[in-house]
Amino acid sequence: MQGRRATEFGLQAAMVTMNDITLLRITQRDQEWMLFECQQTPGPHAAMLSYEMIPDYVLLACRGYPFALFQRYFLFQKEVYLIHLYNTLTGLSIAYFNFGTQFTHSLLCVLIQFLILRLMGRTITAVLTTFCFQITYLMAGYYFTATEHYDIKWTMPHCVLTLKLIGLAIDYYDGGKDLESLNPEQKRFAVHGVPTLLEVSGFSYFYGAFMVGPQFSMTDYQKLARGEMTDVPGQRPNSLVPAVKRLTLGLFFLVTYTLVSQYISDEDLISDAYLEQPFWFRCFYILIWGKVTLYKYVTCWLVTEGVCILVGLGYNGQDENGKPRWDACANMKVWLFETTPFFTGTIASFNINTNAWVARYIFKRLKFLGNKLLSQALALFFLAVWHGLHSGYLVCFQMEFLIVIVERQAINLVRDSPVLSAWASITILQPLYYVLQQTIHWMFMGYSLVPFCLFAWDKWIKVYSSIYFLGHMIFLTLLLVLPYIRRALVPRKEALEKAE
């Protein structure tokens, strides 16, 4: 392609965190290949792609794979400073390609984080300063760049970076403690040496996780730089096939999402046509919409996981049979995600590394409160704020908190009640129970996702009103009623043993 046609053919990639996936949408118009019209953002090569556009051809921009192949074949077990420099430069190039000079936001936070580690050392002051500065900077970014649409902007990878730098500060702090005072998890992730600026930069800008994650620790990154993340010591990891498998699976979900999303979209939920449908249809639509919506996140995480596996970062030791495991950077347990009938099962299979990060650095660090439920609530509140300042995020995680509490109460009730456990164990009814559970599960999973995806108050309240706040009504009622049902159905002796 030459001349004017060559200049018109611009590759504009949309790369985001929890709200989109890295896609390239191209169509043919007037016998010339052109991109769909996009809303430009400050970066010289960033764009926001409308969900209303139906692409004739969809490609996943897998730019991390060439970077991983180069590092795998040309930098394996080279000097560590070369690894750090390579990861820093490739990550910065991705940031500049998408956000232009706004890449300086991430660069500034990385530099300040390095100074905090060096000047404040392994102190609780350094941890608190890191937490306050990084979260405040992210919140300010959300505030000053907020719109009513999903835009491709620097805050998207910055939220990933924020968690990474906070985790680094805590691990560095743990590295200064006596080993006897650390639990096994803290011992594994504690940073005992003093990271250099180049090392912190390489860790922060690693191309395989800079835009959308996954989260990983400095200790794992240091092992990668030293060439230790391999199933064959001294040789390149045998990770090519596992990486291709995750990429292929990601592409499968991409195709599925692309085909189905032509008929189901966020905009439909707030359309007059949707509001005019019968009540049962509105509920069923939310069920299908929620399931399909999550596929774009599944796609993104599977593809980026493949990059991490390819370079070796996904190595997670060996299983009981001596076979290498490549799930260190897994953000999805696909089979569990597709088959579990429980909300807790979906949570355990979805966005695994971010959930593990919150559990490790927020939930477990709040142990001093002496209240597990309060620690869980504060951890979910942190997640909501970390995602953004829109009300929809708070409503989403509040709903998740409520559903999980009720589900656990219901599971315990069925287990402890002789009558309910007898009914639940009837083999011939198992398929019926499963279908019913899955229907309830995905109906209210979609219900919880409505404010997360629409995020603006006037949008999600419109959808919730159209189905009369069904999820809130049912689960708040169950929260109040289940204790009384338990008193009636669970024998007092078993209830006392359970309490003990």
Automatic annotation (TrEMBL):
One GO term of the biological process aspect: phosphatidylcholine biosynthetic process
Keyword flag DNA damage: no
Membrane-spanning ranges: 124-144, 294-315, 369-386, 432-457, 463-485
Major location (coarse): endoplasmic reticulum
Positions in coiled-coil regions: none
Listed GO CC annotations: endoplasmic reticulum membrane
Pathway: Lipid metabolism; phospholipid metabolism; Phospholipid metabolism
Enzyme class: transferase
E.C. numbers: 2.3.1.23, 2.3.1.n6
Keyword line: Acyltransferase, Endoplasmic reticulum, Lipid biosynthesis, Lipid metabolism, Membrane, Phospholipid biosynthesis, Phospholipid metabolism, Transferase, Transmembrane, Transmembrane helix
Subcellular location: Endoplasmic reticulum membrane
InterPro entries reported in the protein's UniProt record: LPLAT_7/PORCN-like, MBOAT_fam
Pfam families: MBOAT
Highest taxon listed in the record's lineage: Eukaryota
Protein topology in the membrane: Multi-pass membrane protein
Similarity-based family: Belongs to the membrane-bound acyltransferase family.
Name used for this protein in its record: Lysophospholipid acyltransferase 5
